[in-house]
């Protein structure tokens, strides 16, 4: 008897947004940046604005129920296009990926909205209801941004978007270093020259409340730009720690780390040291052997700082001395916040007085986001925020333990950025500066996109 041979049907290639984040043929429409799809370019444009434009100082002259800052109006316009493309369908349509981070973010927003609803009558009587509604608009735009990134960016595009973010971070760092040396804020200068007219561009802040010169970059405060750069540092560092990069790429990544660290410390803020150190410790704990091999490079970067950012390390070292820390006006102001807010916390311990209702213009400045949330959303709101940070770390850790070379770097970066955010939230009111949560959620979104599919439900947007 002769054997009958049955032809073997070749396996169908994996979908580009499935379990193969780093390889495979490009999906429908191509992968960004070599794509004719509009939505990824929309995300790239928003990231450019996030890093290079002082958008929280730019008002769009339109009447909206929420604060009409440039980022909120831009995201609203982006959402219209996002929904239109999703409704059109097709293989290139955006896909929603629901993970624990999505649910935790929605839960935090839900608590914030509930705190406003519960206290609506009181807020209306005090004239604070409009303020709460406007402040909650930022939460909604942050959520919208995260949902759009996780539904638009394909796993095969994560590396390109991470590289693009590194480039933008380096440009921001260079602009901040230029501001340190010359006193000219190039970001505000360009915005005032090009955007004034169609938009209302606010002035660059001068000095802080303690009379210290402000090095702001494209933000309203040095704390914001230094934290942005600190949150982005884990992306190039995670690539270096995971290995597999060419010699040329390793050199470029090390250069980007040096630039971003120099840009952060150029602001002369203590957080510019503390927050990156927290991120570095988290990275080192997860990759101790590779971290040891990078120590000579870390030493070289530190030795280069007096040349790249003269005087910054010395200034920060002086500020971090125990005697200076305890007597520094910013430190004593922070410690005085705790007893001052006790009556507000006790009066509404569960859901607070209403999200966004605490106006530092009429009360006191709270350099601690947890304290502000405790007043506005109670213990439930603070717990919901911590759960969000934990969810980001869990999703990132899942990507790291997948042992997939293309998944691990974004996951490793997300765990470090989430841990850094936990500490940064103690050091200042980071939700006051929207760039900070935007960067956190962008890094988290990259980890979500490449996370293994278990415990993830994918639906059409």
What does this structure look like?
- The chain is mostly helical and about 450 residues long.
- The chain has one domain (about 40-450).
- The chain has 18 helices and four strands.
- It has helices at about 40-50, 70-90, 100-120, 120-125, 130-150, 160-180, 185-195, 220-230, 235-240, 245-265, 270-285, 290-310, 310-320, 320-325, 330-345, 370-400, 410-425, 435-450, and strands at about 60, 95-100, 200, 455-460.
Summarize the structure.
With 461 residues, the chain is an all-alpha fold. It has helices at residues 38-52, 70-88, 100-118, 120-126, 129-152, 158-182, 186-194, 222-232, 234-242, 247-265, 271-286, 288-308, 312-319, 322-327, 329-347, 369-400, 408-427, 435-450; strands at residues 58-59, 95-98, 200-201, 457-460.
Question: What is the β-strand count?
Answer: 4
Largest sheet report: 2 strands, antiparallel
Which structural class fits the helix and strand makeup? mainly alpha
Number of helices: 18
Radius of gyration using CA atoms only: 23 Å
Alpha-carbon distance between the termini? 56 Å
Q: Which shape, going by the Cα principal axes?
A: globular
> What fraction of the residues are assigned to beta strands by DSSP?
under 5%
The average pLDDT value, as a whole number, equals 85
List the helices and strands in order: HEHEHHHHHEHHHHHHHHHHHE
Strand order of the largest sheet: 1-3
Q: State the domain count.
A: 1
Chart the SSEs and their pairings.
Elements lengths: L37 H15 L5 E2 L10 H19 L6 E4 L1 H19 L1 H7 L2 H24 L5 H25 L3 H9 L5 E2 L20 H11 L1 H9 L4 H19 L5 H16 L1 H21 L3 H8 L2 H6 L1 H19 L21 H32 L7 H20 L7 H16 L6 E4 L1
Antiparallel strand pairs: 1-3, 2-4
Helix pairs in contact: 1-2, 1-6, 2-5, 3-5, 3-16, 5-18, 6-8, 6-10, 8-10, 8-11, 8-17, 8-18, 9-10, 9-17, 10-12, 11-12, 11-17, 15-16, 16-17, 16-18, 17-18
């Amino acid at each position: 008897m002769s054997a009958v041979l049955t032809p073997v049907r070749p396996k169908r290639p994996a979908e580009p947004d499935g379990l193969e984040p780093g390889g495979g043929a490009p999906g429908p429409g191509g992968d960004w940046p070599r794509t004719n799809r509009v939505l990824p370019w929309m995300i790239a444009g928003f990231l450019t604005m996030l890093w290079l434009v002082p958008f929280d100082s730019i008002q769009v002259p339109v009447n909206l129920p929420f604060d009409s800052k440039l980022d909120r109006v831009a995201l609203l316009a982006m959402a219209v296009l996002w929904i239109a493309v999703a409704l059109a369908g097709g293989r290139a349509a955006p896909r929603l990926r629901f993970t624990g981070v999505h649910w935790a973010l929605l839960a935090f927003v839900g608590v914030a909205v509930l705190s406003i609803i519960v206290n609506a009558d009181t807020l209306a009587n005090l004239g604070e209801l409009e303020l709460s509604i406007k402040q909650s608009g930022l939460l909604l735009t942050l959520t919208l941004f995260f949902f759009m990134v996780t539904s638009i960016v394909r796993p095969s595009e994560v590396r390109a978007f991470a590289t693009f973010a590194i480039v933008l971070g380096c440009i921001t760092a260079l602009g901040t270093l230029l501001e340190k040396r010359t006193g000219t804020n190039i970001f505000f200068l360009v915005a005032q020259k090009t955007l004034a007219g169609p938009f209302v561009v606010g002035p660059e802040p001068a000095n802080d409340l303690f009379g210290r010169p402000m090095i702001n970059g494209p933000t309203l405060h040095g704390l914001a730009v230094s934290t942005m750069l600190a949150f982005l540092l884990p992306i190039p560092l995670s690539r270096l720690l995971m290995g597999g990069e060419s010699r040329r790429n390793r050199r470029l990544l090390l250069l980007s780390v040096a630039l971003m660290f120099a840009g952060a410390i150029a602001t002369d803020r203590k957080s510019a040291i503390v927050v990156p150190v927290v991120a570095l410790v988290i990275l080192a704990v997860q990759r101790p052997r590779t971290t040891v091999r990078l120590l000579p490079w870390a030493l070289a970067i530190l030795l280069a700082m007096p040349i790249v950012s003269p005087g910054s390390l010395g200034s920060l070292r002086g500020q971090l001395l125990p005697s200076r820390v305890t007597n520094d006006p910013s430190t004593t102001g922070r410690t005085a916040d705790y007893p001052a807010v006790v009556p507000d916390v006790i009066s509404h311990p569960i859901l607070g007085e209403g999200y966004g209702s605490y106006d530092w213009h009429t009360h006191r400045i709270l350099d601690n986001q947890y304290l502000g949330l405790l007043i506005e959303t109670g213990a439930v709101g603070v717990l919901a925020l911590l759960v969000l940070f934990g969810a980001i770390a869990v999703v990132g850790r899942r990507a790291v333990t997948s042992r997939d070379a293309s998944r691990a770097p974004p996951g490793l970066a997300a765990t470090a950025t989430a841990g850094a955010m936990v500490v940064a939230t103690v050091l200042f009111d980071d939700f006051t500066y929207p760039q900070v949560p935007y960067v956190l959620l962008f890094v988290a979104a990259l980890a979500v996109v490449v996370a293994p599919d278990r415990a993830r439900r994918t639906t059409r947007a």
